[in-house]
Amino acid sequence: MKKQTFLAILLVGALILTGVIFEPEMSFADDVAVTASVSTSVSCSTTATSTAFGTLTTGSIATASPNSTLLMSCNYGAGCDLNINDAGGGGNPGLWNSSASDIVQSADATLSAGTEGYGIQAATTANGSGGVLYPSVNYWVTGDNVGGLTLGTSVLASSSVPISGREITVIHKAAISGLTAAGSYADTITYGCVGN
Known about the structure:
Layout lengths: L1 H20 L20 E5 L15 E2 L4 E7 L5 E7 L7 E4 L4 E4 L3 E2 L6 E8 L4 E2 L3 E2 L9 E2 L7 E5 L4 E13 L13 E7 L1
């Protein structure tokens, strides 16, 4: 009886061993490489093509209306820059009176009623998606502080990663003195954008 039991165990073991030996081999096909490409793009636009101070007086600091809202999108891995440059006049940035050849010059400043000055403030909004579009330090100011405009290109705001529909609000401020020549003043500010 013990011998029969022993043989039965051996037979079961042989069946298991046979199953392992004759298990089908698994074969693998060659790898398939999947590729794709995405073209770079950058775009920017403004919601306002003009803004006005109205009549400037020595008794107050004026804010132009409406503000300019700039929208920007880009898919560059290192983000993008929103640039700004000023037309000014007479070889200087600022509000230009061509008839009197007089200018209210633009510079980084804290404006004061009765003292000539002109510049902008920039603020980011929560609209859009992706990274944050941060204003440059000299434009990211409030109150009576302004960032000065330049005849050459300056960076108004920038992101370090891709963004979609991000916004910058630009506020224009000016003040005059008793020596500011009477007449009409004008300026043209040009915005552009570039990927990093």
